[in-house]
Every structure is written in C-alpha cells, then in structure tokens.
Amino acid sequence: MISMNDCAERMNLFGGKYPHEFKIKFAQIILDLETVNKLLESYMSSIHLHYNALIPHLSNPTPMDRPEIFRKTCNTHAFQIVKHCNSELNVRNKRILHLITSLISLLLQLRTIGAEKKRLSH
Q: Which InterPro entries does the record associate with it (predicted)?
C-alpha cells in the first residue's frame, strides 16, 4: 500500500494520468483492506463478548478459584475456633484436637461453598 501511494504521488507530481492497471491494482488493495478491516471488527466484537462474559468471574474471585488457599484459610479459622473453645474445655489429646479441627475446617469449607452456590443461583 505504501509503495502504491508513493507511485501515485509521483504520477500526480509529474502530471500523468493513472494507468488502468494501476487503478485496478489500487482498487483491489483497498477492497482487500476493507475485507481485513471487517474481519478484524468481527474478531474484536467476539473478543469483546468473550471478555464481558469472563470479567464478572475475573473481578469477583471466589474462594474456590484457589482451592489450596481456600483450604488453608479454612484450616486456620478452624484452628482458631478450636483454640478459643479449648481454652475453657482444656482437652489435651492432640489426635482429638486435630480431628475436631479437621471437621470444623470441612464444615467451614462446605458452608462457604453452599453460600457461594446460593449467591450465584440468585
């Protein structure tokens, strides 16, 4: 396209007319560019639709998007709950405390997943 424009400018400077073959070639390039432009617009429209479909999920990450962090957070909260409750009960068996902590962690995970599914269904 650039070389065609340069050639057209030279022809124009020297006062010459554009040859018929030149006009046809130039018109074909313009038509090809228009086709490419329409394709790009179509692709951009599709990309925009896809982006808009993804953005709610990307901007509002759920705890389940990162399962290891989610599990670790629930374990930490469960440990804090057990520690707080055990300050009054004074249970000394480590295996029992670990079991209770694991069960509370599981309950916290289930509660969070259930709340998230309920939120998404509304």
A: LIN9_C
Written as six digits, the tokens of 111 are: 């509660």
Tell me the chain's radius of gyration from C-alpha atoms: 34
H-assigned helices in the chain: 2-13, 20-59, 67-89, 94-121
The residue segments making up the domain with residue 39 are 2-56
Q: Is the same domain home to 67 and 117?
A: yes
Tens digit of pLDDT for each residue in 46-94? 888 877 777 666 656 666 678 888 999 999 999 999 999 999 888 899 9
Question: pLDDT, tens digit, for every residue of 81-90?
Answer: 999 999 988 8
Residue 11: how many other CB atoms lie within 10 Å:
14
